[in-house]
From TrEMBL:
It comes from the Bacteria. InterPro entries: Restrct_endonuc-II-like. This is Transcriptional regulator, AbiEi antitoxin, Type IV TA system. It comes from Flavimobilis soli.
Length: 309
């Protein structure tokens, strides 16, 4: 199990500096305010909006941790952030779980969850109290959308989460709101999904009634063996999610390498459909494109495993 290799920015507390200095440094952009009485140094050049949000939120957790009671810990999507799990559509709201609401001082901008967190379901990440990886997956799957829940569950499996442990946690919560959805998310989770885009593409296909695709499907070609993000052997159909990082760096060289790979797959008798972030915004169009590429009948599924929100 890993909680990622990110670094938490140093928190600069206003109480340690003259008010005029704090105001001046924030005004010039040298410091960035993360919450009342706390700042961090300006973000490094080239930091995108998502990275800025994560840096500020992690630093805010450090500042907030001093106000937590002894039985409180960060949970839900906040714990997912500490575990360095990618999220989809997550707000910057901080989640804290404790056996009493008084464990967090009033005025803190947090979502308070009143529940017991046994010792075997809590840990420390970068010195911050948080739910274990399995507990984090269970909490997120019960309270998040199917999309966010599946993105987190897939990433957690890649980070070493034990699905049996998550299932046991859900069994102990039988009858509670969100458990049924969480079980469906866990059943659909796949360690082979390597990005949120791949998880969301698979979710759209499952929600449309397609049979579960095989992730990291190996295909032999005259150039060697390649792995596709997902696909169905019976239809000789491959789905590739194209994130921007795939083409970063030497763009022409990377593009030509991807083209040779795609040509080799087609020559080996496979059809290839590429999906981008923009395609995920219109699931119906994506589903129609996939159906048009299917060779043979599509098994009818009376009830999709997961539905889109």
């Amino acid at each position: 199990m890993t909680s990622g290799s990110y670094a938490v920015p140093t928190v600069l507390f206003s109480r340690d500096h003259l008010p005029s200095d704090v105001a001046a440094r924030r005004r010039t952009g040298e410091w960035v305010r993360i919450r009342r009485g706390a700042s961090i140094a300006a973000h490094p050049a080239g930091t995108d909006a998502h990275e800025r949000r994560d840096r500020e939120l992690r630093a805010a957790l450090v500042a907030l941790s001093a106000t937590l009671g002894p039985h409180a810990c960060f949970s839900h999507t906040t714990a997912a952030l500490l575990w360095d799990l990618p999220t989809w559509g997550t707000s910057s709201r901080i989640h804290v779980t404790s056996r009493s609401r008084s464990s967090v001082r009033r005025g803190a901008p947090v979502a308070r969850h009143v529940a017991l967190v046994p010792d075997d379901e809590r840990t420390e990440i970068r010195g911050l109290p948080a739910t274990t990886l399995a507990r984090t997956v269970a909490d997120c799957a019960m309270t998040s959308s199917p999309a966010e829940g599946l993105v987190i569950a897939d990433a957690a499996l890649r980070s070493g989460a034990d699905p049996a442990e998550v299932a046991a946690l859900l069994t102990r919560r039988s009858g509670r709101r969100g458990v049924r959805l969480a079980r469906e998310i866990l059943a659909c989770a796949d360690v082979g999904a390597e990005s949120p885009g791949e998880s969301l593409t698979r979710l759209i296909l499952l929600a449309a009634g397609f049979p579960r695709p095989t992730t990291q499907l190996e295909v032999r070609t005259h150039l060697g063996t390649f792995r596709a993000d997902m696909g169905w052997e019976e239809w000789r159909l491959l789905i590739e999610y194209d994130g921007r990082s795939k083409y970063a760096g030497a763009e022409l060289e990377t593009f030509m390498r991807e083209k040779r790979r795609a040509d080799a797959l087609v020559e080996a008798g496979w059809r290839l459909l590429r999906v981008t972030k923009e395609d995920l915004r219109d699931p119906d169009v994506l589903v129609t494109r996939v159906r048009r590429m299917v060779r043979g009948p599509i098994p009818h599924t009376s009830r999709p495993a997961l539905r889109l929100p």
